[in-house]
Design brief:
The chain is of the alpha+beta class and about 170 residues long. The protein has one domain (about 5-160). Helix content is about 30%, strand content about 30%. The protein has 5 helices and 8 strands, in the order E-H-E-E-H-E-H-E-H-E-E-H-E. It has helices at about 10-15, 50-55, 65-80, 95-105, 145-160; strands at about 5, 25-35, 35-40, 65, 85-90, 115-125, 125-135, 165. Strands 1, 2, 3, 4, 5, 6, 7 and 8 form an 8-stranded antiparallel sheet that branches. It is globular, with a radius of gyration of 16 Å.
Length: about 170
Amino acid sequence: MLALQIQDVKDFMNRLLLNNTFDPFLVVEGTITTYNTFHVDGRLRPDYYSQEEQELLKLSERQFSLWQNLRPFCLELIKGKRTPLSFRFTLQLSPENTKKLLAQTESTFSMQDIGGLILNIRYDAAGLFCTTAVSLNLFTMDKSLEHAWDQMVQRFFLKQDIRFTLP
């Protein structure tokens, strides 16, 4: 697990809510607290869609909504003259990008071993923090995937010019 403190909150918020920087991530859940607390359950409900829509959206390959689909709703809740009291989002690396990470790192883990590669984003009075986590479907003492995910997140932030410190 890696904890990153974001240095430029305004820039990060622009990237999160106004740009496509995080669009490929899946949304597991989120909570936004302004004048009320709003909860987002990112779990897809396939029965809502026709069979054709399910195939077009490739719902058999994922169980959560893409950030790009929920971002406009979250933006509506957050934007305004007042800063939210807090928010947190639990994002997950997409299956396609998880496969790429496994291939790039020549990992011994399979897709069936991985519950999710998680990026938690939390904002409150203490600041804006991003933490990584790995959910596995098996018990292992092998931390290689966790280290690879931590390094990938740091490289991703550096590539996107997102300034952070390790608290």
